[in-house]
Design a protein that fits this description.
5% of the residues lie in helices and 19% in strands. It is mostly beta strands.
Length: 94
């Protein structure tokens, strides 16, 4: 049994919870069947914009989430571009 590719909301009348696989548009983010995301602060359909941070396709970063997962409101996924090496630190004369 699989969910319809068009079904976004698992429960009628609940617009705070989505089947994440059906709202993801970026190719580097892979979400398997029945994984849900609940967001009571922001629109859960904006998961990519609000929760997947510092992911740049040029770096080859990927996010993979398996089946039957439940992701909490506000959970953030940070990628390698969020961190800098010591060499990147600006040096100032004191």
């Amino acid at each position: 049994m699989t969910i319809s590719e068009n079904k976004i909301y698992p429960r009628t009348g609940d617009t705070q919870t989505v089947y994440l696989k059906n709202v993801i548009t970026e190719s580097g983010i892979e979400i398997d069947d029945y994984t849900m995301y609940n967001d009571f602060v922001n629109d859960p359909r904006d998961f990519e914009k609000n929760n997947v941070l510092y992911r740049y396709p040029i770096n080859g970063d990927k996010l993979k989430v398996g089946k039957f997962c439940s992701i909490a409101c506000g959970a953030k996924f940070l990628f390698t571009s969020a961190n800098h090496t010591i060499r990147c630190a600006a040096r100032q004369a004191v």
